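Office hours follow-up: a student asked to see two folded examples consecutively, so here they are.
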Amino acid sequence: MMKSATIWLSVGFFLCFCVYPPAGAQTTFGSITGTVTDQSGAVIPGVAVTITNAGTNAQRQATTSETGVFNVPNLAVGSYRVRMEAGGFRGQERTGIQINANNVVNIDAQLTVAPATNEIDVLGVAPVIDTETSTLSNVKTARELEQLPLVSRTGGAHGFYAYTALNPGVSKLGQTQNPAVNGMRISQTVPTIDGIVVMAYAGGGGGPVQPSLESIEQVNIELANPGAEFMRAGNFTVVTKSGTNQFHGGAVWDYNSGALNARNFFSNTTPFRVFNNFAASIGGPIRKNKSFFFVDYEGSRDSARQVLTGNTPLVPWRSGDFSGVRVINDPRTGGPFPGNTIPDLLT
């Protein structure tokens, strides 16, 4: 009887796991949408649209609707090619379309009547302004983040969180890494890393969950009107790097000594300090056009001597004689101690 109950309980858990919908999460994907028309401005339904990731050659297909509109969501951050083909028309291909996190790119196209031989028009695309949403955002890529004037790349120097303070309307809260966007409380600004909400951040500790700068592909801070899936008035999304069909990587070593540091007021010499911050990354294909890898490591070593200062009581003070200082009142009576001494409180 016990064995039968255990079997049915296991089956029940399995069925619940299969049919229960997965929990929703914040997205880091972008979308490409657009309308295809002919030279007269009439919409063209049934146009085959192929969207190709330039880094991995992953493809997505779509077909324009009766109104000539196509929409391809859930596209990873990266550069894309869009190819549009329809019977009786010259095909058209757009290249260099950059998709950012939570970005909607509109690519409208006008196809011309095909000649006797099929041809494809290849057009480069200028930087696209997001006109599909009301979100106000600012995107910084890995190259731009690496050029930030940071003392070091570690969490103690704020790392990629330093970028948030370079946006209009953003300020820091005291000595923390937490940004306040347009005067909002920190609980109203929560970061996501690859679509996962950093819950520890709301308590004021952004540093422990900070990824290496070497692993970051881009940071997108939304200053106003973020998508409903974020449930916050402000948000910034971090997307980490991934492998492509080309091997790529990098290495960095930052050495900092105390040779140029200022002398502490209470020290006769400049305190000794040696700081090393180092990182490396590499990514590439495991199987071309199929699977990819990316790994990174970042560490730091800090060796330093510190000058510590403290208040040391004078010899008379240790025996309760405070005659050399201003009058000290007895907290029990409110009046001054006889002779300005408090030996009874020390025993």
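And the second, which I mentioned at the end of office hours:
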Amino acid sequence: MATLRTTLPDLYLSRLAFLEDVLFDEIDIEDGVFSRILRSRDMGNKPFVRTTTVASFASVPVKAEGANVAYDELAQGFDKTYTADTYELAFRTSKEALDDEQEEVVSDAARALGRSLAYTFNVDMANIFNNMTSTTGSPDGVALFSASHPLISGGTAANRPSTDADLSIVSLRDALNTIADTPDDAGKLLHWRPMTLLVPQELEWLAREIIQSPDRPDTSDRAINAFRNANLSVVVSPYLTDADAWFLLAGPSVHNIRCYWRERPNVMHDWDFNSSSMLVKIRARWIRGWSDWRGTYGTTGA
């Protein structure tokens, strides 16, 4: 449907007396959260991107004098293919509406399209965590946050508690212990460190109390708060839908939750010759997913 003068009569035909400002049904959106904590790359001109994991070597054994050296082999792991989705939204406005506007509503509507796209992007990134139990698109066949990730060398490993727990001193300590026991696919320990505590808005104050209090907030004893030295940053996203869920992430150069851009956001416009209408469209192409679970930890809460 086109934006005509009759669509917004207060701006064109009857005109509101002493009209001071035009308010779109939009608010400023907190951008940049997921861009900071997730790995973002450009696909260039490639129609898709494929990643694979490889199991490294086992630990090095003792070799007896005169004995032959032991040989080990690299093992093929799990594959993941990223193919970008296309996102588009447009509006149409008559030339009369464009000529007669005084508050630049039509001109500013392109910015409103931009905010709609920013919202869509943030929701899509948050759904990696909102859908934490989904196996759709999983390289190893289980959810991103699971207590039973299969190892190529055999056995399983976890980046989720066996019993989900609300955020607390105890559950955060248990999470850090689980992280310390994270193995690679050959069974060797990986000593990755979490850099980000990602929480929904409902847990912001509790998360900051746990991480930033000078003393332990759960006791009246004069016990130091050891988490202050954990170098954890609290990151809050209003797009997380589970008020009890919380997540720990390594730096974006360590974990393998990824966003690939095939086409960065851009606004296009053209004229419809027959109707003398201007067409304005915003467009972008991206895909997100994960190639490996290591460097992440999450729980839905109790």
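Two things to take away from it. DSSP finds six helices and 13 strands in the chain. Helices lie at 9-12, 33-37, 95-100, 105-130, 169-180, 204-212.
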